[in-house]
Amino acid sequence: MREESRYVPFLLRIDGLPTEDISPAGRRYIIGREEIYDLQMGNIPCEQPSTKSLYVELNQTECTMKAAYCLIAGFALCCCANPPKASQPETAAVTTPDTVVVPSLPDLGPWHIDVTQSYPTKEVVLQDIAEVEYIPIETNDSMLWLGKEVEYFQDDLIIAANQQCGIMVYDGQGRARHAFNHRGSGPGEYISIKNVCYDRVADELFVLDMLGCRVVVYDLEGNFKRSFQLPYSGLHRVYDIVDFGPDELLAYVFDNVFARLSKKDGKLLEEKNFRKGKDVHLMIEWEDNFRANASTPSLMSGVAEGSYLAAAYASDTMYQVSPSGGWKAVGFKTPALQTMNPPVFVRPILDAPRHSFVCSIKKIWDRKADTGFPIVCYVIDKTDNRVYECSGLTDANYEGSDLLFCTFTATQPGWGVQCYSAAGLRKALEQNRLKGKLKELAAQLDEEENPVLVVYKFK
Known about the structure:
4 helices; 2 domains; Neuraminidase
């Protein structure tokens, strides 16, 4: 083993396996079953899964590989002699003469879900965790919603988009302001709308033209400003973009790649590849070319200003990512994806200040029953990181509602948005399943009208 000092990102091994490289000082890590979770830079895959979930903080300016190996190997032997209890994490830290601190997961550190375990069941009522408002979206012939088109929400501005009507702009009460549609193949036009993000300070609306592999930029009135080609195309193209500070976009690239792009010209600034070195797929394919596939979201709004919850199905970790804070692990699941057969993926549903909602998806499909990819939902109480199986997220004003698998959108930290279709509300009204303000709104709706937004500010 080489003994020279290294000052580069590292791959750690525990339980007697050798350390490859050592990282700069001052970083904190979780050693998971599959990956090293760097709370500043993100995950670093392990070739060999470990068996413990620990924090590691390197306080030296540089560490020799030999010293680190001896420390970790020694700690692993202690773990074998005195195995830790699996119920709740300890908070005490182990201090060594080399000033390397190896504490267990703290109570308020990243949450952890073991998908092989059973957890207590909890049903969550939306009104218990948020203040809820219902906003009917004005309907006219040039601004028709086909589903859940909301792309941007703040308390005084709503932006929606679809292929048929283009970009639709409303005030905070759902009253129509204007719409524009520049679909086409010429200068200043887009072939398709995959999604939209808006930089309010610069008054720049970024339209992701996934088919054209480019982004077209307008102001909120629809005046063309510029366009640029994206550094990805073909199968590996950009599927999602979000506003990421004054100068950047954060993009999800199919599949399992995140990229920081320049708002000015689309130049690639940084790439983070969670798929590299992993033979993991969502799709199940049979010899007769029958295929089944599950979809997972990649980016969701976070609860902090300018942050997003990022998840890649090839990783067992979820991150909060922001321009200033980088990649911070907020939770992870075990066992490691690559050690499971069939594999179980984890995906985010909703992130709130005091709760995180996630689910696991098992990669199996029953062709006779024509069903598969069974899902288990979890809610994590962030006050103590306890995990519960979530039997539902319900609206107290809508009997029988379950919001867990609806599309959530929010660009205002601490807020969430989703839609109730007019037809669905009318049906629920006839079945006497509505009450309060929602019942009053439903009574005024025609089933062909635009949906009602459910807007909630988390407590």
